[in-house]
């Protein structure tokens, strides 16, 4: 049974804070293990990566196996059905069309003093995209990572995907091909992150690593941050559905189940102004779960992490949504635009009764790599800007330098950096 | 003596790689110490912050002293000279005018299928800006952090500044007042980062922490990343000057000294096509250093970390610049625009003979919090976007959901997420 809260009850604040602070991942002490793996990969390169991969993924690879050959990619891709191929192409095309609009423009101008100021965007040279393997395969995540990188102008797009037991999804390989990935390595875990960050004989070093992963991958990303850029430290996925009496309980139940079936701590929360809807949704979740082929994970997730919260008004719902700062927020309302401006912290917002979160996972066009674990308070979903960086340009002529001299030299003196002031004055003393 | 390299010599590549990989900071094993400090602040709040502050900063504070009162800020501000006040105001106004142009615009549109897609930007609610104290005071860093935060619409802008021996710079307090800082805490080190990230009785919790700091601050930022956002893990400052025969050796020398006087591993590198200029600059650095009031730090930095590299062409200089990916790049050339497009990795570029890097530190208008330690390969200087986040909006109607159904359900099945597919189909089965 999910937790049930009512904002009118006297212990609500306490229960809500407990819900917010609840741990959804086993807090694993993996930092030391990961540090040792990174040190090993830096020292021994391919030898370490091969050993660790064979140990954790139960494979029998040599260094020559680490990078998947173009021939293997082509052979595997050819096995994918036309239906799946078309679906991947649709996802690719829609994600590309939307992300194209994120491309920034340079801006260079001269101000009234004659100083030229500019902002120039350039792509990162090489990026690594981590795609989890194992229980499930995620071709959609390949597209969500590679398409914005390609649009940004990244030259090398490397994919790391673990292949437990040596199995690799043909659909993942086809997705990589469609999305413009330039290299695919069958490696995972902290050893994959270390190899991408520092390079080995076989694995080309990249400048930035993005994508979700387990606790080892997250710890490794944290430790290599600085050596390379990273997108975020990802946690379990989550959805918050805000619904009023206009919502269809069966549809809401389906969305809550869709989130819970990710497992691994994924969380589904319903906030509603209608107690009747809350009851009906809970009953519907039970009913639909019993019809789901792989119901165990979803049921366990719903029972352990699910929550149903009744509130007095949509304003109250929006206030709670901002405190939860959920990765996904659904507004299951006839007129979602009314409360949209009040929801300030969310990775993505899905508006109206006909926008289930799952449509955004695949073919909506927006990115599905989104901030989790309340990080929508400060972070954004993956996009083109994650694969670019901004350089400032500044140009003075003698007149504008002279006009700025006094203020600059005064501040340099305050900061006891005389050499700074002198580097300005020396150009004007003549 | 700085290291001298010539790109034509047979061992150049080896020496250059050694220069790139050289450690400029004592590699301190501070991770465990910092973890203990963070845990202590989380557990004991103000008590821990007060104890740690008094221990490290040699003060005698109680919890009531941690936050600087508006009266103290006003009193201190009143003591600042009119000249310094005017210089701060100039810096503020120019930084504000430039950063205003970085404000993003929302973009919401409907595609051919009738799907509404949107990108909406909102400010972070509360940010913390760390400003180093101690040897020097940095009012300019207060402005560089707070102005873009204020422009972004951040409601709470908290400043943390350590006050060794209880001393605080009146200019820092005035800068904070001018820039719109809402709270100032006299705390530093890992305890300041922990207090901002988790909150204490006195220190308000923030959502993101930015600004430079020492090894303890950097380690603390790395450890709290996820709980809050951070800008980067900062290292020592650095400049790369690219000059040809048109450059004035005395001016270049002054710029190299200005960088070296930061100390703490700051690095100055000259890359030039003219051996004669290289010699003249080295001689000028010696001469000017002997005239600098506080020459010890600058001389030590130049001797230990400085480098002069002669190359055959400006193309070669640009290629080296991209490998160095320096925080600051000066193009001391008559026509810097010729090689500007070839310099892809740099925090900021200063163009022409009359744009010393120091002008950008104070009153150029661009930000001086820039990526260090080769991170310009993937990171940007501080700006308005660092204080905002992007939420995706998605809205389907029955027709567009129906149009996308097949591709989405197909991909959900490939990923073994049946519940995802069902959440789409259930809305269309009627």
UniProtKB/TrEMBL annotation, chains A, B:
<feature type="binding site">
    <location>
        <position position="214"/>
    </location>
    <ligand>
        <name>NAD(+)</name>
    </ligand>
</feature>
<comment type="function">
    <text>Catalyzes the sequential NAD-dependent oxidations of L-histidinol to L-histidinaldehyde and then to L-histidine.</text>
</comment>
<dbReference type="InterPro" id="IPR022695">
    <property type="entry name" value="Histidinol_DH_monofunct"/>
</dbReference>
<feature type="binding site">
    <location>
        <position position="361"/>
    </location>
    <ligand>
        <name>Zn(2+)</name>
    </ligand>
</feature>
<dbReference type="InterPro" id="IPR001692">
    <property type="entry name" value="Histidinol_DH_CS"/>
</dbReference>
<feature type="active site" description="Proton acceptor">
    <location>
        <position position="327"/>
    </location>
</feature>
<keyword id="KW-0560">Oxidoreductase</keyword>
<feature type="binding site">
    <location>
        <position position="361"/>
    </location>
    <ligand>
        <name>substrate</name>
    </ligand>
</feature>
<dbReference type="Pfam" id="PF00815">
    <property type="entry name" value="Histidinol_dh"/>
</dbReference>
<keyword id="KW-0862">Zinc</keyword>
<dbReference type="InterPro" id="IPR012131">
    <property type="entry name" value="Hstdl_DH"/>
</dbReference>
<keyword id="KW-0368">Histidine biosynthesis</keyword>
<feature type="binding site">
    <location>
        <position position="262"/>
    </location>
    <ligand>
        <name>substrate</name>
    </ligand>
</feature>
<feature type="active site" description="Proton acceptor">
    <location>
        <position position="328"/>
    </location>
</feature>
<feature type="binding site">
    <location>
        <position position="191"/>
    </location>
    <ligand>
        <name>NAD(+)</name>
    </ligand>
</feature>
<feature type="binding site">
    <location>
        <position position="420"/>
    </location>
    <ligand>
        <name>substrate</name>
    </ligand>
</feature>
<feature type="binding site">
    <location>
        <position position="420"/>
    </location>
    <ligand>
        <name>Zn(2+)</name>
    </ligand>
</feature>
<feature type="binding site">
    <location>
        <position position="262"/>
    </location>
    <ligand>
        <name>Zn(2+)</name>
    </ligand>
</feature>
<feature type="binding site">
    <location>
        <position position="415"/>
    </location>
    <ligand>
        <name>substrate</name>
    </ligand>
</feature>
<feature type="binding site">
    <location>
        <position position="237"/>
    </location>
    <ligand>
        <name>substrate</name>
    </ligand>
</feature>
<keyword id="KW-0479">Metal-binding</keyword>
<protein>
    <recommendedName>
        <fullName>Histidinol dehydrogenase</fullName>
        <ecNumber>1.1.1.23</ecNumber>
    </recommendedName>
</protein>
<keyword id="KW-0028">Amino-acid biosynthesis</keyword>
<keyword id="KW-0520">NAD</keyword>
<feature type="binding site">
    <location>
        <position position="259"/>
    </location>
    <ligand>
        <name>substrate</name>
    </ligand>
</feature>
<dbReference type="InterPro" id="IPR016161">
    <property type="entry name" value="Ald_DH/histidinol_DH"/>
</dbReference>
<feature type="binding site">
    <location>
        <position position="130"/>
    </location>
    <ligand>
        <name>NAD(+)</name>
    </ligand>
</feature>
<comment type="similarity">
    <text>Belongs to the histidinol dehydrogenase family.</text>
</comment>
<feature type="binding site">
    <location>
        <position position="328"/>
    </location>
    <ligand>
        <name>substrate</name>
    </ligand>
</feature>
<feature type="binding site">
    <location>
        <position position="259"/>
    </location>
    <ligand>
        <name>Zn(2+)</name>
    </ligand>
</feature>
<comment type="pathway">
    <text>Amino-acid biosynthesis; L-histidine biosynthesis; L-histidine from 5-phospho-alpha-D-ribose 1-diphosphate: step 9/9.</text>
</comment>
């Amino acid at each position: 049974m999910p937790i049930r809260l009512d904002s009118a009850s006297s212990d609500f604040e306490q229960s809500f804070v407990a819900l917010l602070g609840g741990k959804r991942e086993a807090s694993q002490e993996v930092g030391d293990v990961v540090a040792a793996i990174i040190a090993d990969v830096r020292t021994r390169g391919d030898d370490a990566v091969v050993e660790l991969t064979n140990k954790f993924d139960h494979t029998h690879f040599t260094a020559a196996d680490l990078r998947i050959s173009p021939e293997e990619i082509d052979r595997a891709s050819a096995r994918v059905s036309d239906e799946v191929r078309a679906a991947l192409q649709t996802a690719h095309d829609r994600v590309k069309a939307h992300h194209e609009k994120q491309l920034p423009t340079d801006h260079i101008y001269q101000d009234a003093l004659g100083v030229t100021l500019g902002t120039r965007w350039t792509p990162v040279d090489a990026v690594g995209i981590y795609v989890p393997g194992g229980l499930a395969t995620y071709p959609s995540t390949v597209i969500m990572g590679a398409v914005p990188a390609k649009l940004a102008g990244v030259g090398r797009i490397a994919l790391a995907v673990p292949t437990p037991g040596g199995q690799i999804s043909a659909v993942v390989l086809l997705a990589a091909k469609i999305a413009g990935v330039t290299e695919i390595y069958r490696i995972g875990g902290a050893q994959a992150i270390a190899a991408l960050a520092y390079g080995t004989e076989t694995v080309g070093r990249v400048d930035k690593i993005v994508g979700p992963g387990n606790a080892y991958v997250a710890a490794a990303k944290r430790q290599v941050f600085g050596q390379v850029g990273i997108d975020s430290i990802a946690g379990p996925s989550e959805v918050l559905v805000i619904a009023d009496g206009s919502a269809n309980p069966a549809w809401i139940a389906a969305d809550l189940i869709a989130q819970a079936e990710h497992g691994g701590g994924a969380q589904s929360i319903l906030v509603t102004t209608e107690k009747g809807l809350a009851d009906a949704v809970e009953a519907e979740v039970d009913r639909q779960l019993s019809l789901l082929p792989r119901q165990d994970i979803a049921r366990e997730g719903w029972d352990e992490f699910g929550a149903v919260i009744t509130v007095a008004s949509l304003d109250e719902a929006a206030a709670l949504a901002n405190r939860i700062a959920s990765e996904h927020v659904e507004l299951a309302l006839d007129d979602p635009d009314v409360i949209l401006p009040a929801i300030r912290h969310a990775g993505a917002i899905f508006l109206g009764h006909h926008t289930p979160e799952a449509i955004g996972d695949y073919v909506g066009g927006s990115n599905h790599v989104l901030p989790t674990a309340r990080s929508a308070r400060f972070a954004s979903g993956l996009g083109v800007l994650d694969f670019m960086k901004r350089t400032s340009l500044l140009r003075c002529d003698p007149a504008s330098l002279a006009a700025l001299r006094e203020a600059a030299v005064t501040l340099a003196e305050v900061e006891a950096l005389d050499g700074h002031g002198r580097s300005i004055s020396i150009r004007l003393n003549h």
